[in-house]
Specification:
The structure holds two protein chains of two kinds. By secondary structure, chain A is mainly alpha-helical. Chain A contains 13 helices and no strands. The chains are: A mainly alpha, B mainly beta.
Chain lengths: 264, 282
């Protein structure tokens, strides 16, 4: 414990001593140890104890009996100079400053979302090998035609043609027609991450009726982020997609910000 | 005779309902004297806010409460006025509703917030900021100001907005821009549709962007703009006769088009992830 620690806990220690004279906890022992080694703090504490003691004696000596106050009050009441407080209930404000402050954690989360978007926009997360393969524009082996995703396997030439992309289809067309595999699908429908869960629980506690709305919108935005990231995984050179990803992250940040502003 | 009695009963019931509603509804008017370029902010959890131009030196606010479960706070600090209604215990969306009607100087800077809306403003020239969750936002006949609007699901409509710095953003609300021009126009929606009807002005920088929402722009024949449209996974359709223009990226049949019309005095970017983009001539 140093001098600044003493300054911080001094009022608590003095009050406690004044009330029951007993050490309050282990902190008190550290406090006493510091006083033994620090002349400045020791003198300060002595002065404060003296003042507290004198003040208590002064109060005892000068404070009139409670009956005096009661008699004065009765006389003033009989003369009509004071009245009993009216028992009209004052409205209770729902908006509480403390609660509002609690929701401010949403703000840094929104900033973090934007930062993540910016980082993703300016840093390539795709391994060089994948970028190279994306440039080579030949993802055909994994591609199926989306128009007939549920068509049963068949061995007819026509059916085989329908499940193979045509030669003049661009990579983007083929990307559109390539249904996500199971892991991608799982990611797209994955539940919200930790921050999102925290966000939703905050919404639940403050505006329960809005929970479903915010959850739906959050899922939609997360899905947009996942779709764009998946697209960028396939086409990391697409600057439009990178810009779009930043915009989608901005949308998510905006969702957080609206919640911060609106739920009370 | 029996029918007459029934009609009488229905009339009495309706009249009672109207009287009850009128009693529950309370109107309060606040007046504030202000100088030029005042700053006005109105925030209500539930309720509509409507703003029109009034005199140049006074702000008149009429607050219409639906019950006694709300309170209206008003504060003036010099040229800045803040109006906010807060809910009292037990208030819900109906009983907590407070509608506002404002008459303000046309050069005032205005900020409106409401979860349910609608929010509307017309005939103003100052900077406007609107925010709502489900609130529909309507801005009409506004000149020279910044117009910033963001909603979660609420649709946004701008009509006859000239020379504005405009930023519209919604998670899933539809955006409609009719005769909207300015040096900087951004409209972004996730799943909402964007519809633009106008000539894109002169010397402006426009970008309309969605994720899954469709984008449609309808322009007159004498439009002067350079167009760049790209849907990463959706389709594009152009009905204009565009002059080819150089692009960093090759055009992709059915997914993008680039070209200019007239002197290309404005730049227009239409961008979507998987929505359809259509450019039509009026």
């Amino acid at each position: 414990m140093n001098c600044s620690d003493v300054d911080r806990i001094l009022p608590e220690i003095i009050d406690s001593k004044a009330r029951d004279g007993a050490p309050i906890n282990d902190l008190d022992f550290e406090f006493q140890a510091h006083l033994r080694n620090c002349l400045h703090c020791s003198e300060l504490v002595s002065d404060l104890k003296l003042i507290a003691s004198e003040a208590r004696q002064l109060s005892d000596a000068e404070e009139p009996s409670p009956n005096v106050w009661l008699r004065i009050a009765a006389e003033l009441r009989s003369e009509g100079l004071i009245r009993e407080p009216e028992l009209v209930s004052r409205p209770v404000m729902v908006r509480a400053q403390r609660g509002l402050w609690k929701a401010f954690w949403l703000a840094p989360v929104a900033v973090a979302i934007l930062a993540a978007g910016s980082y993703f926009l300016t840093h390539r997360t795709t391994p060089p090998a994948m970028q190279k393969s994306a440039k080579s524009v030949d993802p055909e082996p994994q591609i199926q035609v989306a128009e007939q995703p549920a068509a049963p396997p068949t061995s007819t030439p026509a059916a085989q043609k329908s499940t193979t992309p045509s030669r003049n289809q661009t990579p983007h067309v083929r990307a559109l027609q390539a249904p996500p595999d199971d892991s991608e699908q799982a990611k797209l429908s994955a539940p919200p991450a930790t921050d999102d869960q925290r966000f939703l629980s905050e919404v639940s506690s403050r505006a329960p009726t809005m929970r479903a709305t915010y959850e739906n919108e959050l899922r939609a935005v997360n899905r947009e982020i996942q779709e764009t990231r998946e697209y960028l995984r396939r086409y990391p050179e697409d600057m439009d997609a990178r810009q779009h990803l930043l915009e989608v992250y901005q949308q998510k940040a905006m969702l957080y910000q609206i919640a911060l502003d609106r739920i009370q | 005779m029996e029918r007459l009695q029934q009609t009488t009963v229905v009339t009495i019931v309706l009249a009672s309902c109207l009287v009850t509603a009128a009693i529950a509804e309370s109107r309060k008017e606040y007046r504030f004297n202000v100088g030029p370029n005042s700053n006005i902010s109105v925030d209500t959890q539930y309720g509509a806010i409507s703003v029109k131009p009034g005199t140049s030196s006074q702000v008149v606010v009429t607050a219409i409460s639906q019950s006694d479960k709300t309170e209206v706070d008003n504060q003036q600090s010099g040229n800045r006025i803040e109006i906010a209604s807060h809910l009292l215990s037990g208030a819900d969306q109906q009983s907590g509703r407070v509608d506002y009607e404002l008459l303000i100087p046309s050069d005032a800077t205005l900020s409106l917030r409401s979860s349910t809306g609608p929010l509307s403003a017309e005939g103003l020239q100052g900077d406007l900021t609107f925010e709502g969750t489900d609130a529909a936002v309507n801005v009409r006949n506004v000149n020279n100001g910044h117009v910033h609007v963001r909603t979660m699901r609420g649709p946004i409509t701008l009509t006859d907005v000239r020379n504005g710095h405009i930023e519209l953003s919604s998670i899933s609300g539809a955006l409609t821009l009719k005769s909207v021009t300015g040096p900087f126009v951004r409209a972004t929606s996730g799943s909402g549709r964007i519809f633009y009807d106008g000539d894109f002005g002169s010397g402006g920088d426009y970008k309309l962007s969605t994720h899954t929402g469709d984008i449609e722009a309808v322009v007159p024949a004498d439009t002067s703009a350079g167009f760049s449209a790209h849907s990463l996974l959706g389709k594009v359709h152009n009905e204009l006769d565009l002059m080819p223009q150089h692009q960093r990226y090759p055009s992709e049949e059915g997914r993008s088009f680039f070209g200019s019309k007239g002197k290309a005095s404005s730049k227009v970017v239409l961008h979507s992830f998987s929505g359809k983009i259509r450019l039509k001539q009026r």
